Amino acid sequence: MKNLKTIVIMSGMFALMAMPLKAQKWEHLADTPQMGWSTWNKFQGNISEDIIKGIADAMVENGLREAGYTYINIDDCWHGQRDGNGFIQVDPVKFPNGMKAVADYVHSKGLKLGIYSDAGTATCGGMPGSLGHEYQDAIQYARWGVDYLKYDWCNTTNVNPQGAYQLISDALRAAGRPIFLSMCEWGNSRPWKWAREVGHSWRTTPDIWCDFDSLRVFPGYTQFGVMQCIQFNDSLRQYAGKGYWNDPDMLEVGNGMTENEDRAHFTMWCMMASPLILGNDLRNMSDATRNIIMNKDMIAIDQDTLGVQGWHYCDKDGLQFWFKPLAGNDWAFTILNPTRSDITYELNWQDFNLTDQQVSGLSTDFGSKVYKVFNLWTHKQEGKTSLKSKVDRKITVKSRDVVSYRLSL
User: Fold this and answer.
1) DSSP tag of 97
2) Residues 108-135: pLDDT tens digits?
3) Topology of 311-408 in CATH?
4) CA-CA distances (angstroms) from residue 157 to 16, 34, 44, 129, 330?
């Protein structure tokens, strides 16, 4: 008991430190943005062992595992109470066989298990937080076989974010099991400025909700629509890269927006090299939803090994033009129409001779290079780019939709 008490005291002391120690996060868990599924957007606190097992089955049966979706993340409200020694337990009604049994089942399907906690005294859902129990919680997660931790920021009065996230990062490392650390303090302390060596991804926005372009305001906090998340995230590309990703929150595809809006939502997360964490009920989804989240050509843009977040290059005629440099001198090119009307645009490739001076240093060089044009949603070749300054094609981008290409030499 003496050693256990020492751990708890040390946890509390380090949580109050204003400056982080040397980072100890696990490496090579995030060479590309993480992919998986989370309970929160669809189920919130109404979760159970049976739901998690059913989702694991569905991920395998639907081919999502092979498409790259790896993690099944249990968000808030899985918690029971702490035992007499301070170790967190699961809710015995929701998870009657315990978290280790759930992890074993998920692992048996070739998937990984994620879990949730909070840097404060309580989680956002009122469950026990990790403040003062950081090393104990990390040990417990390792015992259970957890692979991923989402670490939230509710009930954190007078807690320093750099110290708190450094502490849980060090605790996870000390526990001895490689665990992905997803930081979720909503961008309040600008973690992209300091957390590269601490966590594997960090939220850049408030929570998303299932709407394309509006805010949902509550007393004390506001939720963002898809376009608000894009706007907050798209100026931070210089801070993302292999091992550390900007996170504009989880996906709402399949939860009630239109097919066009879902397609635009998914495309822009891929263009921004964002984590792809699904939030719909995978056991019961439409063919349209399945085709969007299973688009392997678009997923390849998100998971590209160059590891560069896309670039919001310009706006014109109501449209947004985005470029993402890819490995092998390829480019992803997306035209986003955020408006409520279809827009037809006359494309001249010479209008887009650009150099990514901010991150990759790569240039499109449409004046001297000819690219093959592959439509990432129709999965068809659409000719080549032109060396001449002329209208190459007329493109109609539907309302709240995208046209997206891969350009290859």
Assistant:
1) T
2) 999 999 999 999 999 999 999 999 999 9
3) Immunoglobulin-like (2.60.40)
4) 11, 30, 24, 13, 47
Task: Specify the CATH number for 2-302; select among 3.30.1120.10, 3.20.20.70, 3.90.1170.20, 3.30.2350.10.
Answer: 3.20.20.70
Chain segment 181-200, per-residue pLDDT in tens: 999 999 999 999 999 999 99
Active-site residue identified among 170, 207, 281, 302: 207
Instruction: Check if 287 is active-site.
Output: no
Q: Where in the chain is the domain with CATH 2.60.40.1180?
A: 311-408
**Helix%, strand%, coil% for the chain, nearest 5:** 30, 25, 45
Q: How many Å apart are CA 335 and CA 349, to the nearest integer?
A: 13
At 397 the three-state DSSP class reads: strand
Which entry of 91, 118, 137, 152 is annotated as an active-site residue?
A: 152
How many CA atoms within 13 Å lie on the side-chain side of 138?
Answer: 27
Cβ atoms of 209 and 180 within 8 Å: the answer is no
In terms of Cβ atoms closer than 10 Å to its own Cβ (0-12, 13-18, 19+), residue 18 is exposed
Q: Determine whether 147 is an active site residue.
A: no
**What digits encode the pLDDT tens for the residues 218-247?**
999 999 999 999 999 999 999 999 999 999
- Which H/E stretch holds residue 167? helix 161-175
Q: Identify the band that residue 24 occupies on the pLDDT scale cut at 50, 70 and 90.
A: confident
